[in-house]
Known about the structure:
This protein is mostly helical. The chain is 76% helix and 2% strand. The protein is globular, with a radius of gyration of 21 Å. The two termini are 16 Å apart.
Amino acid sequence: MSERLSDVKRYLLSGVSYAIPFVACGGIMIAAAIAFVPMTAAGPDFSHAPFLKMILDIGTAAFSLLVPVLAGYIAFGIADRPGLVPGFVGGTVANQIGAGFLGGLVAGLLAGLVVFWIKKVKVPHYVRPVMPILVIPVVASFAVGFVMYRVVGLPIKDAMAFLTRWLATMGTGNSVLLAIVLGAMIAFDMGGPVNKVAFFFGAAMIKEGNFAVMGACAAAICIPPIGLGLATVLGRKLWSGEERDAGYAGLAMGMIGITEGAIPFAAADPVRVIPTIMAGSAIGSVIAMLGGVGDHAPHGGPIVLPVVDHRLAYVAAIAAGSLFVALVINGLRKLAASGKA
C-alpha cells in the first residue's frame, strides 16, 4: 500500500515539475498587470491601460495551460509519451467543465492508467507501429473525455448549485460560521468550482450592500499562496530550489489575490497542503469578519486595500492566516522528513 502511495506521489510530482514554470510565468505577468492598474470598486480597471491589458492576457494564456500541462505530465509519469495526448485532453476538459486543478489531477491519473492498461493488450505485430501514434491517443482520449464530461462534470455542476443554495440560506445570521465555511471553500480547490461558488457569493453580497462577506473572502483568497510562499522563505532547507521558485511566484500572486499560486504545492502534496490552507484561510476569514472588514471590490489580496473598510483588521487577518499556513506546513514537512508523519 505504501509503495503504491509512493508511486502516486511520484506521478503527481512529475506533473508539478512541468507545471511550475507555467504558474510562475502566467502568475507573475498577471500580478504585474494588476499591480500597476487602477483598482476601483468594480475591481481592476484596464479600460485605459491597453498595454497592461495585453500583459494580463498573455499571463492568462500561460496560466490557462496549468491544468492541461499538470494532467498531461502526470499521465506521462505513469505511461510515458503515449500518456501525453489523453492527459492534455483530459486536463483541457477539466478546465472546460470547471473542475479546476483537482479535476486535472483526476484526468491525469485516469489518462495514465488507461494508457498503461491499453499498452498491456497484445496486438498483432503489424498493428504495433500505429498503436502509440493512432490507436492509443484516440481510444484513451475518448475514454478520459467521456469520464470527465459524463461522470465528473455533472456531479460538479449539481454540487455547485447545492453549495450556492446552501450559502444563500445560511445568510449572515451566524457570521463566524459563515466565515469559516467561506474561508475553507476558497482554499479547498484554489480557483476551482468550490472556490468560485464562495467568491461569487461574496461578490453578490456586494450588490446587496453587504461588504463584510466579500471582506472575509478577500482575506481568505490570498492566504494559501502567501502562506506557502512564506513557508519556503522561513524554511528554505525544507524545500527544493524549484519549490522555492514556486514560492516566490506564490507570494507575488497572493499579493494581488490569485489563489491558484498555491496549486503546485497542493498538487504535489494534497493530503498535507489542502487541509492546512483551508484552516489558514478559515482563520483569516473569521478575523476579517470579526474585525468588521468590508471589501467594496469583487477581488482579494492586499491589492484591494484602498477599497477595504477596517484596513488594519484586514492586514491582520491575512498575516495571521498566512503565518499559520507557513508554520504548520513547515512543521508537517519536518515531521515527514523525520519519518514521524
